[in-house]
């Protein structure tokens, strides 16, 4: 039997809950400034892949990944008490590379636009 868009709805609820929990209840200093971009839930609602972005360099991203791993059990328990599901999905955190790809594409488009523009004429001085 097809699930329709239930995994999408559950994923959106989980995204909202995790964002709120990270902002208000998780006090791990390893979790820097992050954004939960999307949550993909498997059709059987057993696993939820949580995509996030974080500000900073590779070292701070690694610290954030470790901190999210430490917080996963707490977050799953809190989500289980907030959402009415028979079984709370396992949370798997994954850095969202698509945002960096979008930034790179935008940078390349801007470079092309600049290269196609004719040079400014020299200014005349009186």
Quick structural gist:
The protein is of the alpha+beta class. It is 51% helix and 17% strand.
DSSP helix fraction? 40-55%
Mean pLDDT rating: 86
The tally of strands reads 3
Radius of gyration over C-alpha positions, nearest whole angstrom: 21 Å
Shape: elongated
% residues in beta strands: 15-25%
- First-residue to last-residue Cα separation: 80 Å
User: How does the major sheet shape up?
Assistant: 3 strands, mixed
Strand/helix succession: HEEHEH
Number of helices: 3
Structural class: alpha+beta
Strand line-up of the largest beta sheet: 1-2-3
Low-confidence stretches: none
Describe the structure.
This protein is an alpha+beta fold. Helix content is 51%, strand content 17%. The protein has helices at 6-24, 58-82, 97-116, and strands spanning 34-41, 47-54, 90-95. Strand 1 (34-41) and strand 2 (47-54) form a beta hairpin. Helix 1 (6-24) crosses helix 2. The longest helix is centred in the middle third of the chain and has 25 residues, at 58-82. It starts with 5 loop residues before the first helix and ends in a 10-residue tail after the last helix. The mean pLDDT is 86.
């Amino acid at each position: 039997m097809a699930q329709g868009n239930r995994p999408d709805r559950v994923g959106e609820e989980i995204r909202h809950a995790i964002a709120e929990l990270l902002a208000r209840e998780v006090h791990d200093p390893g979790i820097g400034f992050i954004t939960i971009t999307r949550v993909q839930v498997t059709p059987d609602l057993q696993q939820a892949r949580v995509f996030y972005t974080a500000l900073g360099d590779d070292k701070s991203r690694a610290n954030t990944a470790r901190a999210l791993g430490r917080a996963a059990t707490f977050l799953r328990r809190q989500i289980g008490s907030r959402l009415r599901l028979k079984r709370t999905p396992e949370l798997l955190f994954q850095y969202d590379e698509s945002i960096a790809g979008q930034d790179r594409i935008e940078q390349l488009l801007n470079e092309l636009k600049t290269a196609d523009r004719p040079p400014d004429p020299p200014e005349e001085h009186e």
